[in-house]
Specification:
46% of the residues lie in helices and 22% in strands. Helix 1 crosses helix 4. The radius of gyration is 26 Å and the shape is elongated. The N and C termini lie far apart (66 Å). Strand 8, helix 10 and strand 9 form a beta-alpha-beta unit. By secondary structure, the chain is an alpha/beta fold. Monomer. Associates with the 50S ribosomal subunit. This is GTPase HflX. Keywords: Cytoplasm, GTP-binding, Magnesium, Metal-binding, Nucleotide-binding.
Length: 426
């Protein structure tokens, strides 16, 4: 199947941060052949987003290159999208519709497909309302070739379908909450991997757990949450991979993927993954973009470890300098435990393991208990559980063995099932 052909348009205000390389990578990830990229530095034009002069330049390129679509790196208002379509007479989409096209290609699970459909409908809703407004004003542009009656019916369909999807996603969210509570009762600590798309989160999950989850050097490989077990110095933990962030992630995508992003909000510890192999300017931009999403999710109070990934691609001196810059940048902006230099690809994770240990020690769910075991046949099982979910501090063997241990409070229920007695001592 031949690639769709596109002209990209980037408009930025003076001083605004934009990455042309990232926009081009988005286009390629969505399956487009890039015919041309048009750039302009100016404030937003209310009618066309770009200025009238630049619009004429794009119009000439459309006639010459005959693209399937003109794709804007900026968010277009419904009015701007219609005005541009009337001038260019070719499909017009913006960066967020482009992202949703990539999401559609990557979605595999029922939940991911529902979330993508919901986001698409939320994106289309204002466009359909704009079409209805224009029809009432006498503009017969319609929407996707639809007439007035069809547009009104499609609006009803969107609202109905959005209601159904939200109901289905709520059921999935409730099921996930039940599983999450069960894990907490069993004493597990949940760690969420968060960060910019293509930072290496899936590769890190594989390195931590020994799994072989799909991890490609492309944007938005992961749309489905994946949770796996792993151990840090004998402690059994759970780690969840989540959908990648992108600069300026709009509220309608955050809302559509709320049930997935909720894994970050509910996590005990967040590992924020950054690609250390990029220039500092890009790392800083992506760090702020990630922090903005975490702020919107109200997750910045969670203990956070920043993992500077892909340090195998840069020198030690460069890695140390970027670690220092990250520390200075993030200071005071999040509940940061520390910064770890890692290579998930080469399984160089010692600094990360050490910081996870520090983060675990700060969790209120870990406390020191005295455990008394009367039945000697249960002693081995008790010691095994303590080692898996905490630290064994002291054992006094006698007719009634006394164990002093620093354990996850979720273990209390499981331990009492073995007939032991527990007393909190700190």
């Amino acid at each position: 199947m031949p690639l769709m052909r596109a002209i990209g348009v980037i408009r930025k205000s003076r001083g605004e941060r934009w990455s042309r390389e990232e926009f081009e990578e988005l286009l390629r990830s969505a399956g487009y052949e890039i015919l041309a990229i048009v750039e302009q530095v100016r404030e937003e034009h209310p009618r066309y987003n770009i200025g009238p002069g630049k619009l004429e330049e794009v119009k000439k390129l459309v006639k010459e290159l005959k693209p399937d679509k003109v794709i804007f790196a900026n968010r277009l208002t419904p009015s701007q999208a219609y005005n541009l379509w009337k001038e260019l007479r070719v499909d017009i989409i913006d960066k967020w519709q482009l992202v949703l096209e990539i999401f559609e290609k990557r979605a595999h699970s029922k939940e991911a497909k529902l979330q993508v459909e919901l986001a698409n409908l939320q994106y289309e809703l204002p466009l359909v309302k704009e079409a209805i407004r224009r029809i009432k004003m006498g503009d017969r542009a319609g929407f996707k070739g639809m007439g007035e009656y069809q547009v009104h019916q499609y609006l009803k369909h969107i609202k109905y379908r959005m209601g159904r999807i939200k109901g289905e996603l709520e059921k999935i969210r409730a099921e996930r909450e039940i599983r999450r509570k069960k894990r907490e009762e069993e004493g597990f600590v949940l760690i969420a991997l968060a960060g910019y798309t293509n930072a290496g989160k899936s590769t890190l999950l594989n390195a931590l757990t020994g799994e072989d989850i799909e991890a490609k050097n492309q944007m938005f490989t992961t749309l489905d949450t994946t949770t796996r077990r792993f151990k840090v110095k004998g402690k059994m933990l759970l780690v969840t991979d989540t959908v990648g962030f992108i600069d300026g992630l709009p509220p309608f995508i955050v809302e559509a993927f709320h049930s997935t992003l909720e894994e970050i909000v509910k996590a005990d510890i967040i590992i924020l993954v950054l690609d250390a192999s990029e220039p500092w300017k890009e790392i800083r931009r992506k760090l702020f973009a990630s922090l903005n999403v975490l702020r919107e999710l109200k997750a910045l109070d969670r203990p956070m470890i920043v993992a500077l990934n892909k340090v195998d691609l840069i020198s030690d001196e460069d890695a140390k300098e970027k670690e220092l810059l990250v520390r200075e940048t993030i200071d005071g902006r999040a509940n940061t435990v520390g910064v770890a230099r890692i290579s998930a690809k080469l399984n160089q994770l010692e600094e990360l393991y050490n910081l996870i240990e520090v983060a675990l020690s700060r969790l209120p769910k870990f406390q020191t208990f005295e455990i008394r075991v009367k039945d000697p046949s249960k002693l081995g099982k008790v010691l095994s559980m303590v080692h898996s979910m905490g630290d064994l501090l002291e054992v006094e063997y006698s007719e009634e063995t006394k164990i002093k241990a620093y354990i996850q409070t979720g273990l209390i229920r499981e331990l009492t099932k073995l007939g032991v007695s527990l007393k909190r001592i700190s």
